[in-house]
Design a protein that fits this description.
The chain is of the alpha+beta class. Helices cover about 45% and strands about 10% of the residues. The protein is elongated, with a radius of gyration of 29 Å. Belongs to the sorting nexin family.
Length: about 575
Amino acid sequence: MALKARALYNFQSENKEEISIQENEELVIFSENSLDGWLQGQNSRGETGLFPASYVEILRSRSGSSYTDYSGSPASSPGHDSFYTATPSTDISCQGSFEDDDDDDWDDWDDACTVVEEPQSAPGTNGHPSPSLQYLAAYSHHQHAGYHPKPALERQDSMSSSKKGSVVGRNLNRFSCFVRSGVEAFILGDVPLMSKIAEVYCIEMGSKGPQWRPNPHPFICSVEDPTKQTKFKGIKSYISYKLTPSNINSPVYRRYKHFDWLYNRLLHKFTVISVPHLPEKQATGRFEEDFIEKRKRRLILWMDHMTSHPVLSQYEGFQHFLSCRDEKQWKLGKRRAEKDEMVGASFLLTIQIPTEHQDLQDVEDRVDAFKAFSKKMDDSVLQLTNVASELVRKHVGGFRKEFQKLGNAFQAISHSFYMDPPYSLDALNNAISHTGKTYETVGEMFAEQPKNDLFLMLDTLSLYQGLLSNFPDIIHLQKGAFAKVKESQRMSDEGRMDQEEADGIRKRCRVVGFALQAEMTHFHERRVADFKRMMQSYLKQQIIFYQRVSQQLEKTLRMYDNL
């Protein structure tokens, strides 16, 4: 049923799915159930589309319940009741997929409808969703965890209860990822300390800067045997993958749906970590052999990055995903992961940083250098992807056709020589005919070759497109933290803030800074290993390929030796 609403702030649309709204403008809401923080409705100009739920309030008649205010934010003063004081375990982005289905069969998720269906927008970096929508999916509920006061919690800065939050100004753009991720609230000391934090992730100083402490129990996990299975007497079909962790050596079977659920848990929890993107979804052709093989290859790379990450590999939800074989235990572990309070900004409370001093300006310079590097690498990865994709197209189409044409031409010459028997030399005719068939074979070899070399290159490049597309927003979180530190220090120098509070903001900014630098270090380590492996594999396969082509041609050449 359509509802009336009022715009609290101005919002400018950025793509054709969104509409612009003005402060105090009357709106019509088609449904008050938000999708990843977005509502669909109509503005006063008759335009229909999406706009942020946090920018409007729904108006209700006095005889009904009071209006719903979506404008609350994690940076609101403690004790302010708002839409965002929902139970921490409830994820807006997943309510439709999980909460209604908790009692269903844990395997009964349809591949055609994924956990988070993001609104389509103009493509952002490398074709991924634009940052605004991407962070709606990734951080739509980070602000839910632990922001409303609880008796067992206290503010990080231990300020007196009479003080209602930091005097440092808050960002006017309450829709920025810095705000919605909860990092602003963390920096300002508005994320309550938990009475007990069970998980701890340590950062150490390495030879090249801060790095995550390695997983004390490293492992790998294979992804094998994609198998089509059915249920409900064949009405429903899906593909399951056999996963075998090396630390357990007992296989489990997971559908893509389960990977998707895990991926959204990772986005929900790890604010400052670049979570590798899952292979792309596909509405049609999901059971075609080529698509299944491509998804398997990319899931292998995804799993390799997950198990190699010192933090992600230790995540309880990931361990549950890899080890649980009992349906009842799966549901319990799934609910436990969805009720995890140490997510988003609260995840930053689990990080222990080194005692070594780091000048914030030096950190900012290093982050700026990485930002420039990642932008350049992103451009070059996209360029190589386009070139490799075009080369695949030529292998499968152009090269094969050209060699087939050459082979047919040679065979035509051979057939013409048979036309005058007195002067016909069978050995020569047969050799020329065989040459034509050889070039047809070479054409088929070219068509098959991308499976051996270019596909692996494209798989690796696709993974890094996703990783690189994460960093601009993560760096934005760090930039926002730096800005708060500078502002707090200026206010302290002017006597408008206690130095103790300014020191607290600087200390919490150090946590964000160390975490980002640890991610940068891990990214570079993986980049070196992955691109070394990619290039070695490509060159080896190229050598093998051209050796096979050479063998075919040498065999044909010998047919002319004894004419």
